[in-house]
Amino acid sequence: MSTLLHDTIMPLIRHHGVVVVGGVTMLESMGVPAPGESAVIAGALYAAATHEIGIVPLVAAVAAGAIIGDNLGYIIGRSVGFRLIRRYGKHIGLTDARIRLGRYLFQRHGSKVVFFGRFFSVLRTFASVLAGANRMDWRRFLVANGLGGALWASTYGFGAYFLGHAVRRLETPLAVALGVLGAATLGTAIFLLRRHEARLQGEADRAFPDEGPAAQPQSETGSTRPPR
Fold first, then answer.
1. What angle (nearest 5°) sits at the alpha carbon of residue 57, between those of residues 56 and 59?
2. Which of 64, 77, 114, 119 has its CA 20 to 30 A from that of 151?
3. How many CB atoms are closer than 10 A to CB 17?
4. Which residues lie across from 218 on neighbouring strands?
5. Quick one: a GO cellular component term (predicted)?
């Protein structure tokens, strides 16, 4: 993934700017395993280093890509349902374990999964597809998706941008210390998110130990609903 980002995504960012970052984010949000998070951070650092693209247009493009991609993913998930997702999802990385995680979280937390899921690597890619397959109410999905996409875009975009500015100004011991502290804080936050994600996956596996391919989708309240 790092090779793809360095050899393909970064040259595209240099030539086409925020459109590429927004496009990669949209693809990831639809369920395509694209490097959305890395593209956002790379674009923000590039903006801080060169000022050839603006951070505000970048964050706006990322938020738009995330929201549009999530809505397309929702439509895909609602259209194909769990049976086809379980049959073909493995080809795009949507394994049985990830499907169990999605079902488990939607049953327990509903709209919160859509809002906060963007901050978790697995859920960021597949939350919208699983929301559609779980037949989550579209209006609730739209609100949670819009707010979550805007918060994620702002947090990663502005966070990486200001960190990039700080790194470029490491000229004094205090600046070096602040830069190291900022990088350590970001790394710790990502590490804790990954650990929490692994814990949730374990809970989901225990909740659906014998789930077969014929399992039916459930609503946010946990009851089975027929397709509309």
1. 65
2. 77
3. 19
4. 224
5. plasma membrane
